[in-house]
Design goal:
By secondary structure, this protein is α/β, with parallel strands linked by helices. It is 42% helix and 22% strand. β1, α1 and β2 form a beta-alpha-beta unit. The chain is globular and about 50 Å long. It starts with a strand and ends in a 7-residue tail after the last helix.
């Protein structure tokens, strides 16, 4: 199974990146997981101009990666408990998660998703949402493998 987490992130958040790498390492026995950070000068410039330009720039870097089962993270998405989240991994061999940039994700991109989920109804800092997602991916893989981590 291939799982990729795509994010628009200017800089790496030291401690969070260390923790994310640890979850990727622990998950390796269940799946090949990749942390794909996409950021470029066009995104940086667009974010300083405004919402519409930023969303268009996010779409440009994300759309070529819309392969397999695509899940967008959005605070208005479906709320799942950990067992329901684990079901995502049961029938999909290639799963891509997309975390929005400073302005979230465009309606255009969300309309192309197979699923839209929420980690919380609250707006979360990018680095916290990303760490939560990697932990839940590991937890979901453990649930499916009957590994004791979830208990």
């Amino acid at each position: 199974m291939e799982i990729s987490v795509f994010s628009i992130q200017k800089t790496k958040a030291d401690n969070f990146e260390k923790e994310i790498k640890e979850y990727i390492k622990m998950s390796a026995k269940f799946a090949n997981i990749k942390d794909k950070i996409l950021f470029n000068d066009k995104i940086a410039k667009a974010q300083s101009i405004g919402v519409n330009d930023a969303l268009k720039a996010y779409d440009e870097v994300y759309e070529p990666n819309l392969k397999g089962y695509c899940i967008m993270l959005d605070e208005r998405g479906s709320s799942l408990n950990s067992k329901d989240f684990a079901k995502i991994f049961e029938n999909n061999n290639q799963i891509n998660f997309f975390i929005g940039g400073a302005y979230g994700l465009s309606e255009n991109l969300k309309n192309k998703a197979d699923k839209i989920i929420s980690l919380s109804p609250m707006t979360l800092a990018h680095k916290i949402a990303k760490l939560m997602l990697f932990e839940q991916i590991f937890r979901g893989l453990c649930i499916n493998a009957n590994h004791p981590y979830h208990k």
